[in-house]
Amino acid sequence: MEHPALADLGTRVVGRYIRWHDSIASTNDLALRLTEVPVPEGTVVVAEEQTAGRGRLGRSWTSPRGGVWLSVILSPNLPLESIPIIGFAAAIAAAVAIRKTTGLLARLKWPNDVLVDGKKVVGVLTEAAPAPGWVVVGIGINANIAGDALPEVPGYPAASLQTLLGRAMDREELARTLLLELDRSYAMLMSAGVDSVLRRWREMADTLGRPVRVEMAAGTICGIAQDVDGAGALRVRLADGTMQRVVAGDVHVRETGSP
Ligand code: BT5
Hints:
Layout: E1 18-24, H1 27-34, E2 44-50, E3 68-74, H2 84-102, E4 107-109, E5 113-116, E6 119-128, E7 135-141, H3 161-165, H4 171-192, H5 194-204, E8 211-216, E9 219-228, E10 234-237, E11 243-246, E12 250-253
The structure holds biotinyl-5-AMP.
């Protein structure tokens, strides 16, 4: 995906400046450093491959050639507690872009994953930069990647769009559509506020209303995933009826009868 494929997007903020790299450790790492320069809001760092792609909580993100790996530098006018909602806006944009360019029914899993057929095709990593007011949102989409190049982690099925479609897809169109949709969902967040993004997220959610097991640093809980709140936390109703607020963790949907 050459840089010109992402030129002239006509967006308001996202993707007005694009920095393309063939191979880079992590687009989030470079984007975080660029906030110190600083560069204009909406600058995108995109790479053909990442050699040290990062997930949440220090986990690694497999990013071979054929995927869409990019980070967007934003300067949102939001209270600190609402910063996670930018990750929601990014996941919405990725899911809409997948639906539009492939026809696959992409759905959202808390906090920021995009699933197709229950398999993870997108990961999002939202990080506050050391420079006050700046946020980097990194988006990784498994586009044209062979199935055996993705990690096999029990309980975390991963897939690529190529495998799900049974053919290679137009990665440039996917990346363009992603940036257009992120520009739109970010504008919605800035003008209509957090609730407008949460409404859209709920419409596309796979997790809500279902029995879940949530693994957190403090332990594991089981309950029904009830809703998300204005700080992006997941609200889980436990068997005794109390509500638990989950700020960080991994959610597994439980099929009826499973632990
Ligand atoms: C995420 O973390 O899902 C966030 C991933 C963000 C990646 C983007 S790519 C552009 C930007 N630059 C970066 O360095 N990062 C961002 P988390 O929910 O913690 O999921 C990580 C876990 O997903 C890993 O521990 C693996 O089990 C699994 N995994 C790793 N690579 C994967 C892939 N390509 N597809 C699906 N699952 C993967």
